[in-house]
Design goal:
Elements (H helix, E strand, L loop, with lengths): L10 H15 L9 H14 L10 H5 L9 H9 L12 H14 L1 H5 L5 H14 L10 H6 L8 H10 L3
């Protein structure tokens, strides 16, 4: 079993499928689609046009074209022409963040002891507690942001330490 080769994207085709995805997705919601939604649809359109024996590019390749450091200027311009702007990221209040995790753990203590609750559940509950206390005009963080604080390379040391006192494994 060999290592599969990374698929190279045809840049002009990439921009074209983002344009097509934007026109299809624009009518799905009154507020218009989000950049990642368009990226998912563009990935599907791109893969539909590939010959059957060609390796498909990864979905993350398309979502990274619309967000973060590796965002593609041409793709961002297509989205901007379609009236879609990237949303600013929510800035987390550290004190409120830690308090929401502590409250989540305290309220879930019996579920943790029975082995029913996992760190992922605690992160979701902490997100709900955190966002309940936000003002209407404040930018809401994503639930994925909270999940990343308890798993993987983005795990927050302070939160992981708090979780460690409740989860023995």
């Amino acid at each position: 079993m060999g290592v599969s080769k990374i698929t190279r994207l045809d840049r002009s085709r990439l921009v074209e499928v983002f344009r097509r995805a934007l026109t299809e997705e624009k009518f799905a919601r009154a507020t218009g689609p989000r950049p990642r939604t368009v990226a998912v649809r563009a990935h599907k359109l791109y893969c539909e046009g590939l010959p059957p024996d060609t390796a498909q590019p990864a979905l993350v390749t398309f979502t990274q074209r619309v967000t973060g450091r590796s965002a593609d200027v041409a793709v961002l311009n297509v989205l901007k022409e379609g009236g879609i702007e990237n949303h600013p990221h929510a800035v987390l209040n550290r004190v409120r963040l830690i308090a929401s995790f502590r409250e989540s753990l305290e309220k879930s203590k019996s579920r943790i002891e029975r082995g029913v609750a996992r760190p992922l559940h605690i992160a979701d509950y902490a997100h709900r507690l955190y966002t309940e206390k936000l003002d209407i005009q404040e930018i809401r963080p994503s639930p994925l942001t909270f999940r990343r604080l308890v798993y993987g390379q983005g795990g927050d040391p302070e939160i992981l330490e708090i979780l460690g006192s409740y989860f023995k494994k």
